[in-house]
């Protein structure tokens, strides 16, 4: 399952998903660049040049800021990263930095997000334990959820998040076609960006 796997970029530039909890120092007087959001005027995607903290393009991401943003998201949902004032995303002692900061416009790859679900479920809910007895999904998940769960758990805990994996086939109709469920309406979060994703 893992042999020959290519590198895994865990960030995506999409209009949906869980935001990566990092802010960047940015010169907000600069003209709109590739990261400019027409839906959120004045929000720039700061450049990723390797710079010192406090200079344009430098990231602000520490254990303290991540923990604070996690608390905000736990209380208000993940859209809070896009909708809350930047001051609210910062711990009290760093709120003075808000005017110099910009949101980044990347989200976690959905496979990383779902692959780390073992931590949010098995380790956070009373009565459950790590590893799970079994993961059950369709055979298409061998290179999807099963694999991303394995990669994240081995990296973080040194062990698989499951004792066993059970896969199943797929149902076909009388003409040997896969049934197609009715299309569900799609909802874009309020912080959705215009333009195509590149992730």
Task: Write a brief structural summary.
23% of the residues lie in helices and 13% in strands.
Notes on the protein architecture:
The protein is elongated and about 60 Å long. The chain is an alpha+beta fold and 199 residues long. Residues 28-53 and 191-199 have low confidence and may be disordered. It folds into 2 domains: 1-13 and 109-180, no CATH class; 21-105, no CATH class. The two termini are 23 Å apart. The longest helix is centred in the middle third of the chain and has 14 residues, at 63-76. The strands form 3 sheets. Strands 3-2-4 form a 3-stranded antiparallel beta sheet, with no helix packed on it. Strands 1-5 form a two-stranded antiparallel ribbon. Helix 6 links the parallel strand 6 (132-138) and strand 7 (162-168). The protein is built from 6 helices and 7 strands; from the N terminus they run E-E-E-H-H-H-E-E-H-H-E-H-E.
The domain count comes to 2
Report the span from N to C terminus. Answer: 23 Å
Report the average pLDDT across residues.
76
Q: What percent of residues adopt helix (DSSP H or I)?
A: 10-25%
Number of helices: 6
Shape: elongated
State the secondary-structure class: alpha+beta
Low-pLDDT windows of residues? 28-53, 191-199
Spatial order of the strands in the main sheet? Answer: 3-2-4
Number of strands: 7
Radius of gyration: 20 Å
> What profile does the largest beta sheet have?
3 strands, antiparallel
Order of helices and strands: EEEHHHEEHHEHE
Which percent range describes the beta-strand content? 5-15%
Oligomer: single chain
């Amino acid at each position: 399952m893992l042999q020959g796997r290519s590198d895994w970029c865990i960030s995506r530039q999409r209009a949906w998903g869980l935001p990566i909890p990092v802010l960047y120092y940015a010169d907000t007087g600069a003209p709109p660049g590739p990261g400019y959001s027409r839906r959120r005027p004045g929000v720039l995607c700061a450049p990723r040049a390797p710079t010192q903290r406090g200079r344009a393009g430098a990231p602000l991401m520490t254990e303290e800021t991540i923990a604070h943003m996690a608390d905000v998201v736990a209380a208000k949902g993940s859209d809070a990263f896009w909708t809350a004032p930047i001051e609210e995303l910062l711990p009290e002692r760093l709120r003075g930095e808000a005017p110099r900061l910009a949101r980044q416009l990347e989200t976690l790859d959905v496979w990383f997000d779902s692959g780390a679900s073992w931590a949010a479920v098995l380790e956070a809910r009373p009565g459950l334990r790590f590893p799970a007895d079994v993961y059950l999904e369709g055979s298409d998940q061998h290179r999807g959820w099963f694999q991303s769960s394995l990669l994240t758990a081995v990296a973080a805990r040194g062990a698989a998040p499951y004792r066993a994996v059970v896969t199943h086939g797929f149902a076909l109709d009388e003409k040997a076609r896969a049934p197609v469920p009715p299309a569900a309406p799609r909802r874009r979060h309020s912080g959705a960006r215009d333009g195509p994703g590149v992730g």
